[in-house]
Amino acid sequence: MDYQECADLLSGWDRVLIVSHLRPDGDTLGSSAALCHALKRLGKTAWMYPNSEVTDKYLPYVREFFAPADFVPEHRLAVDTAEKSMLALGFPGDIELCVDHHPSNSRYAEKLLLGDRKSACGEIILELIKLLCGGIDETEATLLYIAISTDTGCFQYSNTNSATFRAAAETLDAGANIHELNQRFFRRVSKARIILEGMIFSDMKFYRDGGVAVATVTLDMLKKAGAVENDCDDLANLSGRVEGALVSVTIREMEDGTSKISVRSGPTVNSSDICAVYGGGGHAMAAGCNIACPPDQAREKILAAIDTVWR
After folding, report:
1. Which stretches of 22-137 are DSSP H helices?
2. Which of 32, 69, 80, 216 is the most buried (most CB within 10 A)?
3. Would you tell me which CATH number, out of the four given (3.30.70.20, 2.60.40.10, 3.10.310.30, 3.40.50.720), belongs to the domain 191-309?
């Protein structure tokens, strides 16, 4: 679908449930909540699926949009979710429409609006709201700034482009308090997070003469640091800080014994191709997958995948 077709479709919908993805980040949450608010402004009944994994950092901004227990939707829409298996924990239904910016989207929904050149799904939602409502209000501006800024690492990641800044400027013009938001999301961290980062950096391993940096986050590290999920935002980019690393990997041990893999790379290596070896995907320079083994074994497997893709 193109933007106008999607806006026309949404204009005819009512009783809409908007679904975010597993381990939700600022983009899926901010985008979902902004669209939900815009649909409500149009007089629609719209709610977000109550994602149980939302952390305390984001909860104050999205809690008011969570669907009541007795809500029965007529339409279901996914935002920023490339695979059906990545839909929010416990979501039971099919998806009629997916709005996404991941090139690896599997086309699982009946209809798809894919803006794969957008740095964040929030940019797509911004354009949709302008078509639906004529512009964004202050609440939507705040939510969309959260979406865009968090998915670009406060405009530091390689996915940032001139359109990203123009979109962010629109949210500022519409009333987003970027000073307060930047402080909350990028300048302040907990004591537990500081301790956890020290453990991660001290355990980091390097391969290919420093061209590959691998960070591991174990359950034991989290316990010793006193860290909870709210302390784990953006761990995937810590290993990418190392000078000379062309590929950076973060391996996070999960409670079920699997390992969540996040890969970041420069333009010479495709992160999505690396993660696709184990059924994952994402963007060319930022992707992820899950491997059903502990971190030590997962490290060897992802290094093998890197050797397969990067020759």
Report:
1. 26-41, 59-62, 121-133
2. 32
3. 3.10.310.30
Query: Token digits for 278?
Result: 């184990």
Domain boundaries in the chain?
3-186, 191-309
Low-confidence ranges of the chain (pLDDT < 50): none
Q: What is the CA radius of gyration of the chain?
A: 19
pTM of the predicted structure, to 2 decimals: 0.86
- pLDDT of res. 92: 87
Q: Do domains 3-186 and 191-309 have the same CATH topology?
A: no
**pLDDT by residue (tens digit) across 17-54?**
999 999 999 999 999 999 999 999 999 999 999 999 99
Would you say domain 3-186 falls under CATH 3.90.1640.10? yes
CA dist 210 and 247 (Å) reads 9
What's the confidence (pLDDT) of residue 257? 95
Cα–Cα distance for residue pair 157/166, rounded to 1 Å: 16
- Measured in degrees and rounded to the nearest 5, phi and psi for residue 34 equal -65, -45
